[in-house]
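Worked example 4.2. Below are the chains of a multi-component assembly; read each line carefully before continuing.
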Amino acid sequence: MSTGHWHITPVNGYDISALEAWLAKNASCGKKFSFTIAPFTYFEPIEPVQLQIHLEPIRGKVEEDPELSDLFASAGWQYWGTFRSNYHVFATEDLEAQAHTDPELLEETLKKFFRQKLLSGFGLAVLSWFLLAFYYGSTTFFSLRYYPMQSLLMSSWVLPFALSVIGLLLVDLSYLFGLVHLLRYRRAVRHERHLPSSGKNQGGYLLLAGLLVLLPVTLNTLSLFWGMDYSPYPLEGSGFVTLQEIEGEDFVLTGDYMHNMDYISHEDTLLSCESWYFNQYGMFPDRKDTPALIVQANRFRFPFLAQALVDEIEEKGAYFARLGYYWHGEGNEFQSLPLPEGLDYAALYRMNEGRMYLLARRGGTVLRVQYRGTHDLTDYLDRFAQLLEML
Amino acid sequence: LGSKERGPLTEPMYYVLMSFLKQDMCGTDITQFVEHKTRGRVRLGPGTLYTLLAKFQEEGYLEETLVEGRKRTYRLTAKGRTAYEEELARLRACVLDGEEESR
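Applying the procedure described above to all two chains together yields the following C-alpha cells:
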C-alpha cells in the first residue's frame, strides 16, 4: 500500500493562482491534497489525473460547510479539505468549469478576505512586538559593545532576541508579500483578467525559513514559562569550594540568606550557556573588609567559545574591576598560573584590599571566582580543577 | 447591493432574487431555475451562488426557512422583493430608453 507524501509548500499561501496551479500539478503526479501543517502540505496517493483546483476563501468557520460542498458537488466539484484555515479546496476534472461566474462578487469576497488578513497582519505585528519586548532584557547594548562574548554567550536574551528579529522579519515579509499577491489577484479579478501563475513563486520558503529560525526561540520561551530553565541543587555534595573551607571552620557566615547560599543556582536554556552561581559572605556583607566568595561557572556547547570568553576577559583585564559590584578598584595584577591536571587555562588577578579574581577553563567550561579575604586562592586551584571536572 | 446607493444588481444577483418570487428555494433549485430561465445564458458558479446566498442573508433579502441534512432552504423577504422590483423598474427604464432612441 503506497503512503502519502509531505511537501514543503513552495509558494506563498496567499498567492491563490500559484497555489491552485501547484495543487493541480501535484494531482497530475498522483498526489491528492489532504491537509496542511504550518509550511508543510500532506498529499494522499491517487491515480495521476489532470484536474482543475479551486480555492474558495474561508468566511467564518474553518470546518467543511455542507451547503458549500453540496453546491460545488452539484456542479461537479469534489471537496478535498481546507488549506491552512484560509481556503476550502475543491477539484474537478472539467478543466473549463468556473467556480465563480460573477467577477464583481468575487472581487468583493476577495476584498473582505484581504481585510481579514490585513487585521491578522496587525495581530502578527503585536505578537512580534511582545516576543521582542520579552527578550529585550536589562543587559544594555553598551555591554554588548564592550563585552561582546560575555553578552552574546552568557546573556539569556541576546541570542533569542537576535533570532526573534530575524525570524519575525522573514515571517512578516512572507505575510507582506502574500498581501501583495492577494491585492494583485483582486485587481486581476476586477478587470476580468486571468492571472497566470508563473510557477516561479518560491515565497513559501521564506515562511519556512522564518519558522525554522523561530522554532528554537519558541522552545526557549516555553521552557522559560514553565520554569524548566532553573534547577538549583544543594551545596552539600556539590563539590563547590565554600568560604568556610578557605577561612576555616570557625569562620562565621552572615545569616542573610541572599549572601549565604546553601544551594547552587543552576540555569540552562536552549539559547544560552549552562550556568552555575554560588556566593557566601562573612558577617556584615556590606562592609568592604568582610571576607566573601563568589563562584560562577558557564559551560558552552563548543570549547572555542569558552576560549573566546577567556580571551576577552584577559583582554579587558585592565578594566576587570568593573565586572563585580564589590570588586571595583585599581591596581590589578595579572598572574598566569601553572596548570594542574585537567585545566586548559588558569590565571589570577590580584587587586587591592586583598581581593582576587581567578579565571580557569576546562574544555567548554569557564570558571570565575571572586574572593575577598586574607587567604590565597591559588592554594585552592586543585579544588577548583576538581569542581570543573565535576560540573 | 441593489439599492440606489449601491448601484444596480449584477445579472446573477438579479436572477437569484427572481428565483424566489414564486417559492422557497435551496441552492441546487436556484442553479436549475437560472439555467432554465436564461436558457443557459447566465451561469451560476457554485462559489458565486454560495457567496450570494450569504450576502443576501446578511443584507436581509433572504431568510433561511429549513435545514434538511446538507440542504438549506431560503425565502425572499419584503426587503429582497423591493430590491428586485427596483432593479426590474431600472431595467424596464433602460429598455424603454433604448427602444425610444432606436426609433
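Take a moment to check your reading of the output against the notes. Chain B touches chain A through 25 residues (CB under 8 Å). The first strand of chain B starts at residue 25 and ends at 26.
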